[in-house]
Design brief:
This protein is an alpha+beta fold. It contains four helices and six strands. The chain has helices at about 10, 20-35, 85-90, 120-140, and strands at about 1-5, 35-40, 50-55, 60-65, 75-80, 105-110. A four-stranded antiparallel β-sheet has the order 2-5-1-6, with helices on one face. A two-stranded antiparallel sheet has the order 3-4. It is globular.
Amino acid sequence: MIIRRADEETEAGAQPSEELFEAMSRYNEELLKAGALLDGAGLTPSSLGAAVEWRGGAGPTVVDGPFAEGKELVAGYTMIQADSLQDAIELVKRWPTLDGHGNVELEIRRVGELEDYDISDELKEKERQLRADSEQNRKV
């Protein structure tokens, strides 16, 4: 997963320019042609969101945005499939330099798979079924 960190502009709700949107479309098309693109989207500013927190075993508390730590927020994501971290890094190096006016922070994280967790085969199968059901719901 490529995580695009938020900045002042994304948190202010600034829309990407036509030029940036076209550059990102070309990048995503390149990823698609390489068989690497799985999904991706930009996120709205945190001022339009909320956080739900649990502290000390108490029930959930809802905190409305915006959130203070803009550098820790996510402005968007791209899901890719790569054979290794190095391959993912090479794909990310092609990110359009127009984004963030050339000042952007991207984080690469591997999405955990069921095989990564030390859980019973029964729980793994239950999770596989939930994922299959979820995928089926998206197709309807």
